[in-house]
Amino acid sequence: MKSTYIKRIVLSVTLACSLAISSCERDFGDINDPWDNRVYSAKIPELYNGIAASMPENGRGIFSSFLYQRTQLAANYAASGFRLDNQVGGIWENYYFALADFRKAIELIEAAPDGQSYTNVRAMLTILIAFKTLKATTQYGDIPYSEAGKSFLGPEYYRPRYDSQESIFISALNDLKMAAENLSDDASQVSLGAYETLLQDDIQLWRKFANSLRLRYALVMREKNTAAADAIISEVLNQPVLEADEYLGIDPTRLSMEIDRGASFRGNSYVRLGSTMWDAMSSNNSMDGTGIFDLRAKIFFEPNSEGNWKPFPQNPSASTTAETDNGVAGNDPYAEARLTTWEATGEYRYSPLNVYYVNDRKLPDLFITGSEVSFLKAEIYNRGIGGVTANSATAQQFYEDGVISSVKMWYKLANASAVWVVNKPAAAPTPAELNVMMSNPAIAYNTNPADALKQIYKQHWIALFHQPFDAWTLQRRTAEATPNVPLAPTSEALNLNRLVYPIAENTSNHDNWLSATGGTDDRTKKPWFMP
Fold first, then answer.
1. Contact 51, 130 (CB under 8 A)
2. H or E stretch at 394
3. Rounded-to-integer distance, Cα 173 and Cα 171, Å
4. Count of CA atoms in the C-beta half-sphere (13 A) of 333
5. Residue 474: enclosing H or E segment and its boundaries?
6. Count of CB atoms within 10 A of residue 426's CB?
7. Neighbours of 483 (CB within 10 A)
8. Contact of 311 with 323, CB cutoff 8 Å
């Protein structure tokens, strides 16, 4: 299986230093030296690397506290205790620091006497910031964009206005198109060398990255701007995109870094296997797990402390037996101590996420996978959109490619885990195992197009288990067509349609915040792309 990750990140100081005044040199120097009022100059390689350093996922507390329950990828057996408005600031700052680095880098390229030789660098920067922009706007809705990230140009940009989500989509998608078209194999193009920490100057892979994103977000906006979306889909289907066995992301095993997801599952996070996902992965409720047909189930989840498979109801009733409290000493299934003992610590009645999945700090953050691209194509050919005629056979092929490549990717990642010891999966499922899974009535492609589309959405949703923000976007843009049951009226995730803005926006950019919200920052308000 092919994979491409960030190979090496030199953490640029520009990530920590806003470009409101100036950029910083890579060397901190002696912190005991007196301040000397020096002005540091920004450089293109460091700015690029600052954006690369901002690519790891943010907002993991939002995953475990809100999005697993909202998307029903998992369930929360109790309210987390975390406030949404206290969780959103890091995502916001991550994006706007990167946007400032991008603006400054483009300014430097345009001013350079050999600016034409930076065409590829400019395209790479554009792809990264377009990706981050589209992700940010799907999370928040309208956001500052056209005037944002320019505070280094003067005080008139200190309080940027909010752009409409529709205009942001069109702008970012146009940027991705131009970037893909302008990437060049010409040897005269500047190479960032060791600073190119993402795709190591693989120009064809950069094209695939850009076009795969165009396909994803064209479908996100299609229900609201069909003409523009279909034009993009029609074009991208004839362009290079990720193959089923390719995936892009950040691999900590190749970096001097770790990604600590476990902290988001301990303390005030109460996440378990939910009944919605259980129903999508098991043909019955046998607690011995004999009904499990999805090969990913035992990678993502594990039995309870008694060795039984028991999901927590997505919408528990008054008669639902309460789970034991993670706060009780020894009752935490996500305790890192289990990596060495494996034995259950204390008692937990409902199946948790797999302790290895939660605590392996070397699992990658994924940007986009070939599996997702396959599901997007399956949807397109099933529905007959984007200028193509509906074709059940073609849709089925892409659907099956998406399921199989997702399973193979997770077997590979789990098998490569250095911490995984008990019940470690093989490097790949056997053909016989895959055949049994793909032949299960719940997965075997349905001849009825409407039922087949439901299958496509379901398997696309499962494949995004490691990408809850993207699963949330899929759920919202398909009008809740991913697997779901009605949530309790008291659920913290009920009608969570967007992230609220950071509290600081109300004070530091009040007039524009007021114009965007009308004075009420309502998380139930549907962003533009939602049907």
1. no
2. helix 392-415
3. 6
4. 27
5. helix 468-477
6. 11
7. 20
8. no
Q: Are the C-beta atoms of 190 and 117 separated by less than 8 Å?
A: yes
User: Which is nearest to 62 in space by CA: 369, 354, 271?
Assistant: 271
Q: Which amino acid does the sequence have at 196?
A: E
Length of the chain: 531
The neighbouring-strand residues paired with 4 are: 248
State the amino acid at position 20 in one-letter form. A
Ordered alpha helix ranges (H), 24-118: 44-53, 60-62, 68-71, 89-111
Do the strands 271-272 and 75-76 form a parallel or antiparallel pair, or are they unpaired?
antiparallel
Residue ranges of alpha helices (H) inside 185-225 are: 203-221
| Cβ atoms within 10 Å of 153's Cβ, excluding its own | 14
194 phi and psi angles, rounded to 5 deg: -65, -20
Residue at 245: amino acid letter: D
Report how far apart, in Å, the C-alpha atoms of 216 and of each of 115, 373, 375, 406 are. 31, 7, 10, 17
Which string of b and e fits 44-58 if b means at least 16 CB within 10 Å? bbbbbbbbbbbbbbb
- Strands 4-6 and 247-250 come out as parallel
Residue 272 three-state SS: strand
Task: Note down pLDDT in tens along the chain; length 531 residues.
Answer: 454 443 333 333 233 333 333 333 333 334 334 444 444 578 999 999 999 999 999 888 899 999 999 999 999 999 887 889 999 999 999 999 999 999 999 999 999 999 999 999 999 999 999 999 999 999 999 999 999 999 989 999 999 999 999 999 999 999 999 999 999 999 999 999 888 888 989 999 999 999 999 999 999 999 999 999 999 999 999 999 999 999 999 989 877 889 999 988 887 679 999 999 999 999 999 999 999 999 999 999 999 999 999 999 999 999 999 998 765 667 889 999 999 988 887 899 999 999 999 999 999 999 999 999 999 999 999 999 999 999 999 999 999 999 999 999 999 999 999 999 999 999 999 999 999 999 999 999 999 999 999 999 999 999 999 999 999 999 999 999 999 999 999 999 999 999 999 999 999 999 999 999 999 999 999 999 999
For 60: left if phi > 0, alpha if psi spans -120 to 50, otherwise beta; the answer is: alpha
Residue 26, CA distances (Å) to 15, 47, 134, 193, 469 in order = 11, 10, 29, 17, 32
How big is the chain by its Cα radius of gyration, in Å? Answer: 23
40 is written with which tokens?
């540091």
Segment 442-445 long-range contacts (CB within 8 Å, at least 24 positions apart)? 442/280, 442/283, 442/293, 443/293, 443/294, 443/403, 445/395, 445/396, 445/399, 445/400
Per the CB < 8 A criterion, the answer to whether 62 and 87 are in contact is yes
Query: Which residue type is seen at 125?
Result: L
Other CB atoms closer than 10 Å to residue 421's CB: what's the count? 11
Q: pTM for the complete prediction?
A: 0.92
- Quick one: tokens of 110? 């345009």
| Type of residue at 234 | S
